[in-house]
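HUMAN:
Sorry, I am quite new to this. Are you able to go through these amino acid letters and fold codes? The numbers rather puzzle me.
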Amino acid sequence: MDSWKPILDIAITGPRFLLAWTILSALLVVYLFLKRRRGRWFLVALGSLVVGTLVGLAVCWYIQDVDNTFGEPLLFEDWFWAPAAVAGIALAVVNLRGGRWWRTVLSALSVIVFLATATFQINAAYGLNPTIGALLDINTASTVRVPSKGTWRALDADEPLYKSWQAPDGMPDVGLRGRTPAPIPATHSGFNARWAGLYLPPAARVKNPPLLPFVLLMMGQPGFPSPIGVGDVADAMAKKNHGLAPVILVVDQLGDPSHDPLCLDGPLGNVETYVMKDVLPWARASLPILQDRKHWSFLGYSNGGVCASYFASKYPQDFGSFISVSGEEFQGSEKPAQVLAQFFKGNQAAYNAVMPRNIMRKHGKYADMIAVYTAGTKDPKYTAAAKESAATARQVGMKTYFLPVPGAGHVGPAYGGGIQEAFTVLFPYWGLAPPA
């Protein structure tokens, strides 16, 4: 794996990288189109492009409007690059016969280039995977060295951290991002989770780090348990607050990116047991974090957003706050009939019982829970879900915030922007910043 690391760590979302692949694809299309200078060939070539484009559009239409595969409308980039790739492949196919051997080889290689270009462009539009390794679900991040437990120190419990903490000379400017020192043992759950990510803020990198607030994060589906994006937001906040930010543990609730276990114990794995009996005890014992519920928060994005509201509302003794960034209203909300049949065997009462809104209503009044919901202003579906969820949270006594992310859809800026908005609210509550 180490020998492949330089390739797997190549950044694939930058404009230069994307432009290079786009130009290469365009040149190949021109080359393949000009195979012969005859009218009949041009008709064949043009026909292959038209047919390929129509097939690609039909696939997008089926995914969005018939199957609702991803539970949300496709982006413009999906509608452009998927048909463009299929059109290019169709042109390459009609070039496979009746030419020199090297043109046949180049036609076959063009298929790979067209697929790669579309994949890179769509991936960048969603902001999902920053590197080739992440795209292939291969974790190449270095492990994060956590300060030994004997060096941790609790600051004055009667004072908020921003008052009792003084940044020492030589404190690093940024936090550490990578994997946990070792995979979290799934002793009780047996859940086959991917290696968790970890962010340690600058204040946790000093000789005697203070105990800090703790954030448990789950990404969307498909998603990768990477601390890079959330670490960027936390670093920006830490820069304003003398290196203070929460310790953030990014855990995997999927096991397989194509699966959605709904954050429950079920046929796709015991995710709930994994979180409550494997992850939380490991975090308490292994990380320099405060132990009280006020300083513990569950953060989730999209698929992870409903997990955040589920765990926090069901286990308020462990979490004092939660953040749902563009989160689903309830588990499987994009395909409730299918989830009801496959996961709950048609038992509607069992399905209803795990929905966060029903857990909140059954629990009654929450004494001191903070609920933060965010959604992009250009994401009407998840904005409606967030407002509906926020209304329920408010009814059961939670101190509730709905924070729109200006100009964001469901992906890309919605993630970082949502976390930024939520952290602005919660940093004073955690004692990391003065009251606003």
Summary: The chain has 15 helices and ten strands. The two ends are 47 Å apart (CA to CA). Residues 147-430 form a domain with the Rossmann fold fold (CATH 3.40.50.1820).
